[in-house]
Amino acid sequence: MASSNGLSTSKRRPVRRRLPPLGPGPNLRFVVANHPDQFRAGKTMRHVRSHVMYKHRTGRMTVSNDRPSTGLHRSASERAQSTPIPTVSTSEATSHDIDLLVPPQLRPRSSTWTGISLDRRSNTPTPFELQTTVHRTVLLTAAASAQSAPSAFGDVSAFPFPGTYSASESQLDALKRHYINSCSLFCNDRQCLEHICSDPMTFLSHVSVSCVYQDLMNGLVHDSNTTMSAKTRVLGGMADQLKANDATILTTLHLLLSEAGSSEESAFQVHFRGLNGLIHRRGGLSQVPPPLATYVTLLLTTLAMLKGLNGPSILPATSITSHHAGNYCPYISPLYSPHGDFATLRDSCSAHTLNIITDMYGLSHAPLDRNDSTDMEQASPNHDQGSNRLFHSLSTKHTQPWDWIHEAVRLASLIHTHALLHGTTLANAANTTHHDATTTPGAATLLHLLLNALERTDTTHCWGPMRGVFLWVCLLGGAASWTPTGPGSESGESTQPVSARVAWARKCFSLWAIRAVVRIGFAHADATMEALGAALRIQDALDGRGGPRCIDYTAV
């Protein structure tokens, strides 16, 4: 009985029931994508698309939150020496935005020029937008270059991914259009940008230059992670194709410009020699299309002034820009004025500023008109008296403290006249201390006072109708921030370390001058070349080079 009761109380195991067989599953689909935008709408793709989006968002957060460890910000002691920047309320910008970006739009500037609206919400891309552009450009250009199958086989059933190349190509074109419409950091010439962005590598190289200008706005002396990523991608793409074609020359020039403001000269010298080698293999700039030849000539001549590049002139610059002859250039300056008339600047600056510009034009061109650079070292008594009178008049302010355009012009003229009177270089003149109670409580060098004044003007638009004057100020400041290397030598031979303040000044002046040359436009290439030539002759005489200087454009 006990055994029967035990059997009756035990639980019985559940009966297994077989489910009906499953139907045939969906067809397998292989998906190749590097970005969420490459997926098309559809329920069957939702699961895969979600996982890719998770990965994409994680990558974007990593990029946005990763502050570059190599970026050297200006110290608080250095910022304290400059004119205080007005604070911004929380309704306009958060404290994080102010710490990350110190754009010129938030600084007090001269009220004499109101020709262009300085809306803070301009076409200038934000750092996050530029990071996204770089990330997408790298991925799309990599996808386009990795596609080995020719387009003629796109409809063949044996080709595993029929729609990938066309999708990447269309998205790359859309990205180019967005970049052209929003780019204002380096070049705003739409026709020029469309030509540059027609090739994936030249497009990415131009983006890398924009990254350098974004780092400048962020107050970074060294390259950020985004800039280094863009440069690395450009260098990697160029390693596979070193043909002396237009795209390679243009890409190398952009790499050279991206290193123009760096105090580490090794990369600049590599790109400079590479560019000269490409032009030499091409047969000289005369074998290059005129627009590209003009672009290369203007920017290399600018670098010659800024960094003291030296070499024989085998190819005259006039043969490069002669197709622009006859175009009137409204951007006059102490370096260029066809008839010595500065009436067009009356509505753009104060009367005191206009008087200084007029006096500096006469002071600079009086010895140059004698067509002998050595005469500058043996100035006439009248010229010496004029320099002395102008120097003393420039030593004191005569205008409102917020007219930073006037202050920049005054300080640049003070550096030039000091070099003329004392027979020294621009670098030595700019490094002299200047006591001005209205500017700083103590003494500071003329170079850093000039930089502080320029930082409080609209450097993005290069002073609008006063772009020629802006270029003159930046060329003078850039040449003064680099120590002259002497006759017959090239920049970059000095291995002495520079301070953070000097490195920051070099980067600012160099990139601002390059931007000004591009903003003036290639339709006025002859006028720009005349201004650059005058600046080179003045610098040669002050540095004691003993003769005209021009960079080596390689043989024809």
UniProtKB/TrEMBL annotation:
Residue stretches of biased makeup (Polar residues): 78-93
Basic residues: compositionally biased ranges: 10-19
InterPro entries membership: Fun_TF
Record region (Disordered): 1-28, 61-99
Signal peptide positions on this chain: none
Origin: domain of life: Eukaryota
Listed Pfam families: Fungal_trans_2 (PF11951)
The name this protein goes by in its record: Uncharacterized protein
Organism the protein comes from: Didymella rabiei (Chickpea ascochyta blight fungus)
Lineage: Eukaryota, Fungi, Dikarya, Ascomycota, Pezizomycotina
